Amino acid sequence: MATDQIQLDRIDTAASDTQRDIVAGVKTILLHVQNDKALDQTLESALSLARACDAHLDCLHVTPIQAYTSFDAFGGTFVMSEVIKSIDEEEKLLSERLSAKLRKEGVSWDYTQVTGDVASQIIGRAALADLVVTGRQPKRTAFQGPTIGLLGDLLHRSRTPLFIAADDGKLPDPNGRVLIAWNGSFEAANAVRSAVGLLRLASEVRVVRIDEQKDETFPSTRLLEYLSRQGINADLKVEVADPMPLDTDFAYACLMSEAERMEAGYVVMGGYGHSRVSEYMFGGLTRSVLGGCSVPLFIAH
How far is residue 20's CA from residue 16's CA, in Å, rounded to a whole number? Predict the structure, then answer.
């Protein structure tokens, strides 16, 4: 493995705290509320971002329509009054719990509960949000399916970037160090542009490029120049897979290792540079990080 490092100096753009709030660019954060053991960490991640950006927290809890239906032995469907009562009680307790917590946090917030298709409801609400914060832990019910499927739907269908809480309890530090996973793709470029407001708050930004043979890539120095014009100081670290070709396991291990080494507050990357079918059939970096990541993740398609 070979490593090269490049750095471009930032133009001096000292800003007041008020100016930093303005340039953060994230003013509406959509929090996907799931009543599971990952809720507290996901909520704390959203609060950390909301405080740093002086943003409004839009909390959305979606009850899947399938939760209200049951199936009989002959394939028929029906709705049980006991199920409706149980779901209503659960939703009320969740709303009261979050409301009590948020009233003490000193951030602007609202809470909405709807019933419908989970992905479609989040995507519709995200149309007027700057960031969607969610977690990986699914509700322990058969109808919701694997978390990676929902995250894949949100990433592929929404035009709003996702911020996914870490698996191990690590909270994001918007004012700390940030790692950008760069492969020169349009998806990676979209993610960087979407993250510019947050990146301006970071104390250090490092771009990691893992060399692979791919056409239509942006030169890495152009990314550093682009960030510099945005007032963001960044350095570039290039990892070369040896032997080639580059595989997903190497890329994933390389990114996670570098993120832990620099104690990154979160990682920025593009998702689904290949089709979702290819990712599912043959694996891919997007599928790996959606399945599990020890660092908070900012990801866009």
Answer: 6
- Amino acid at site 176: G
In a domain, 72, yes or no: no
Rounded Cα distance between 202 and 195, Å, is 11
CATH of the domain at 257: 3.40.50.12370
> What is the count of structural domains for the chain?
1
Residue 209 domain-assigned (yes or no): yes
> Which residues sit opposite 187 in a β-bridge?
none
The answer to whether 235 and 7 are in contact (CB under 8 A) is: yes
**Rounded CA gap, 299 and 301, in Å?**
7
Q: What are phi and psi of 242, to 5 degrees?
A: -140, 115
Residues 165, 39: Cα–Cα separation, whole Å: 10
Strand blocks (E) in 90-154: 109-116, 131-134
- Distance between CA atoms of residues 127 and 35, nearest Å: 23
pLDDT per residue of the chain (301 residues) written in tens, 0 to 9 = 455 566 555 444 444 444 444 456 899 999 999 888 889 999 999 999 999 999 999 999 999 987 766 554 455 555 567 778 888 899 999 999 999 999 999 999 999 999 999 999 999 999 999 999 999 864 444 334 346 789 989 998 999 999 999 988 889 999 999 999 998 889 999 999 999 999 999 999 999 988 765 445 555 589 999 999 999 999 999 887 665 556 778 888 899 999 999 999 999 999 987 655 444 433 488 888 888 899 999 999 8
Whole-angstrom Cα distance, residue 115 to residue 3?
Answer: 50
Residue type at 36?
D
Q: Which of 170, 135, 103, 147 is nearest to 287 (CA)?
A: 147
* pTM as predicted: 0.83
Does residue 174 sit within a domain? yes
210 is in which domain, residue-wise?
A: 1-65+109-301
